[in-house]
Design a protein that fits this description.
By secondary structure, the protein is α+β, with helices and mostly antiparallel strands. It is built from 16 helices and 19 strands. Strands 7, 8, 9, 11, 15, 16, 18 and 19 form an eight-stranded mixed β-sheet that branches. A seven-stranded mixed β-sheet has the order 1-2-3-4-5-13-12, sandwiched between helices. It is globular, with a radius of gyration of 21 Å. The model has no long low-confidence stretch (mean pLDDT 95).
Length: 483
């Protein structure tokens, strides 16, 4: 990895510039507080911001959100837009878990209504949402042909199978389906890895969480999103599982050869890429879109089973609970998007790796039901503290290609977290916080303990003050399902 002996200049309280130098084509722009930047100065993620600025066709700046930490090629928390004619597509700018993302549902329940039944609800969710490494569904085994229909249809495929309603699709990014998906570009090996994993959480930082609205900051937006103080919500965080990982792995090998073929000079081989107009670039975009659609369908199936779990645990009809989708956002994605400029418009391929789309009020891609306030931006925190709902603001479109942060961001590696957790009873600690935890194994609980993450309120404060997205509500955990 190239060492540019980085110079970092403070622009204002939330913005820091890495000036263009050497073969960088644009500046780096990092959104962070002074305290965050003190920690980042010794973090290789800053070097990755500078490295991304070397990509052909990169537009405006290589951008990093306040939840930035080291990743494969791109930093996690990185945003990069490339020109559709001169630019490239890089799998490292999407990540292995293609369309890892978050879905939020709100309900008619108050947290006090759930108090006595919470353990039973969490137990039923744990039964219905398979978790852990290699987890599979035994009640949804798909043939390769049927799985290809999932890859083409996304969340709509699940709705057609009776898992959800058409109204759900109106509240999903891109309607729960990326256009341009080509199931034929997904290998049989990827299909085999994914065919029993639809409707599963997996492991790592993936979770399903029963929460309640603990604070409201923006009444108009909260009302539009169905969020009131005390309201019970459900947040689901998962992606494309083994299928997406396989797609990424296979296309990284192709891209390594494409770098030589197209004579692309890069400071880090993990940034391997291909021109958007090349056969290699088009093939990756088509396969990535198919994997993204698998992830949309995955969260749709899990939302269905979350509804059923609540109904079974509470002994009521699922329709009586009002478990409505607030929104579903992508965290690891690259897609063509259009932006206004000087009275006109331009298109760009926006890579978001550990970043969330954050469109403001009036934007045509915001669901009609929210267009008067803006797009919901879902920011999970850690399992012991809180998560946030934000709403997209004009600053995001003006500065970050319509992007905001995606979560708290790790402050400990998984290995460090395990060492720190040694000898502690994390489940008992969580119980003392009033949070019921069910997990496939204690290793993941240790890796994902609250101290392993930055305080998400600090991350949210930066994007709020920078004008990328505004705070709407805080959500606190009641029960957590972990891999």
């Amino acid at each position: 990895m190239t060492d540019l002996k980085l110079k970092v200049e403070r622009v204002d309280e939330q913005r820091w510039r890495i000036p263009r130098q050497g073969a960088m084509r644009v500046d780096g722009m990092v959104y962070a507080s002074a305290a965050m930047m003190r920690d980042l100065r010794s973090d290789p993620a800053l070097q990755q911001v500078a490295n991304v600025a070397h990509l052909p066709g990169v537009l405006r700046a290589s951008i990093a959100m306040p939840d930035i930490h080291w990743g494969y090629g791109f930093p996690i928390g990185g945003v990069c837009a490339t020109d559709p004619d001169e630019g490239v597509i890089s799998p490292g700018g999407v990540g292995y878990d293609i369309n890892c993302g978050v879905r939020l549902l709100t309900s008619r329940l108050d947290k006090d209504d759930l108090a006595a039944d919470l353990p039973r609800v969490v137990d039923r969710l744990f039964e219905r949402l398979p978790t852990g490494v290699g987890s599979v569904r035994r009640d949804l085994r798909l043939s390769h042909d049927e799985l290809r229909r999932v890859l083409a249809g996304g969340a709509a495929w699940a709705v057609q199978q009776g898992m959800g309603e058409a109204r759900d699709l109106e509240a999903l990014e891109e309607g729960g389906r990326l256009s341009g998906a080509e199931p034929a570009e997904v290998s049989d090996r990827a299909l085999e890895r994914g065919r029993n994993q639809l409707g599963t959480l997996g492991s790592g930082n993936h979770f399903a969480e029963v929460q309640y609205v603990s604070e409201v900051y923006d009444r108009a937006a909260a009302d539009a999103f169905g969020l009131a103080p005390g309201r019970v919500t459900v947040m689901i965080h998962s992606g494309s599982r083994g299928l997406g990982h396989q797609v990424c792995s296979e296309h990284l090998k192709v891209m390594q050869k494409a770098v030589e073929k197209y004579r692309i000079a890069l400071p880090d081989r993990q940034l391997c890429c291909a021109p958007l107009t090349s056969p290699e670039g088009r093939a990756y975009l088509a396969a990535m879109a198919a994997a993204a659609n698998f992830a949309f369908a995955n969260r749709q199936v899990m939302a269905h089973w979350a509804r059923q779990s609540f109904a079974e645990a509470l002994g009521v009809d699922a329709g009586d609970l009002g478990l409505e989708v607030v929104y579903d956002v992508c965290h690891n994605i690259a897609k063509m998007e259009t932006f206004g400029h000087d009275g006109g418009s331009f298109s760009a391929c926006v890579h978001r790796k550990g970043a969330t789309r954050a469109y403001p009020a009036g934007h045509p891609q915001v669901p009609q039901r929210y267009r008067h306030v803006g797009q919901p931006v879902l920011i999970p925190g850690d399992m012991g503290r809180y998560s946030y709902v934000l709403v997209g603001a004009e600053g995001a479109v003006e500065e970050t290609f319509g992007s905001a942060c995606h979560g708290a961001g790790r402050r400990m590696s998984r290995r460090q977290a395990k060492r720190s957790a040694a000898g502690r009873s994390l489940l008992a600690e969580m119980q003392e916080r009033g949070v019921v935890v069910r997990a496939a194994g204690m290793a993941t609980v240790a890796e994902e303990m609250p101290e392993a993450y930055k305080d998400v309120s600090d991350v949210v404060e930066v994007v709020h003050r920078a004008g990328l997205a505004r705070r709407v509500a805080q959500l606190r955990p009641l029960g957590v399902i972990k891999g």
